[in-house]
Design brief:
By secondary structure, the chain is of the alpha+beta class. Among the domains are: 57-97, no CATH class; 116-228, endopeptidase fold (from Nostoc punctiforme) (Alpha-Beta Complex). 47% of the residues lie in helices and 14% in strands. It contains eight helices and six strands. The protein has a six-stranded antiparallel sheet. It is elongated and about 60 Å long. Residues 15-21, 23-36 and 38-44 have low confidence and may be disordered.
């Protein structure tokens, strides 16, 4: 009987204590705060998947990152390009851009842009250095020695000290596809005689012959090949 009376008193005291705690204190408890934080995080990280038939700025951005025609419409070309990218990156292949594919595309584009910017920066830092046959830096160059040096310093790539061999290492691209930092090879009858770095707007960064220095000049002939060594 005594034990039952003690239990009743303890239960009553516990209930009174619980009722005396403000509701706001319960809501701000760690368990409630965690629930609210988790819900907010889920809402903040929500991502609308891009798929065939979609249009808009986000589609344009994906097309830019993929380096394909920018139409703003998610058609077959974009779908196929996304699938190819997903295969290369070991992502789940759907052809649609979910958050993971979006982040991978963005990261790849930023990495490419940084590598190209380093190429141009290293090349410009050599402005004024003289042409010396057979030289490959750091303060004198011939044409393929200049491209060799710049790519080694900017990207860590090892290029042969010969214009024709450098061209054979790259992927042939059109003039319209070329971006500043790609390589330009001048040829006569198909035989390559000069290597340079594309500067954009029809210009190259290069050093051409004895008596000249590293600088920027317009492309003076239509007999040129463009090649890309920095791959996707």
């Amino acid at each position: 009987m005594l034990h039952s009376d003690v239990r009743r008193r303890l239960l009553s005291a516990g209930l009174a204590l619980a009722l005396s705690v403000p509701a706001t204190a319960l809501i701000s408890s760690p368990s409630f705060a965690a629930t609210e934080t988790d819900a907010a995080a889920r809402q903040a990280s929500s991502f609308t998947v891009l798929d065939r038939g979609d249009r808009g700025d986000r589609v344009l951005r994906v097309q830019r990152w993929l380096e394909i025609a920018r139409t703003g419409y998610y058609g077959k070309n974009t779908y196929d390009s996304v699938r190819d990218f997903q295969k290369r990156r070991g992502l789940y292949v759907t052809g649609a851009v979910n958050e993971r594919t979006w982040n991978a595309l963005k990261s790849r584009w930023q990495n490419l842009r940084e590598r190209y910017e380093r190429v141009l920066s290293v090349a410009r830092n050599q402005f004024g250095d003289p042409y010396v046959y057979g030289a490959a830096g750091p303060s004198a160059f011939d044409c393929s020695g200049f491209t060799l040096y710049v790519y080694r310093q900017a990207t860590g790539m090892s290029l042969p000290h010969r214009a024709t061999s450098q061209y054979q290492m790259g992927n042939r691209i059109s003039r319209a596809e070329a971006r500043p930092g790609d390589l330009v090879f001048f040829h006569s009858g198909g035989d390559i005689y000069h290597a340079a770095i594309y500067a954009g707007k029809g210009d190259v960064l290069h050093v051409s012959r004895p008596g000249t220095v590293v600088g920027r000049d317009p492309i003076w002939t239509t007999s040129v090949y463009f090649a890309r060594l920095i791959q996707k």
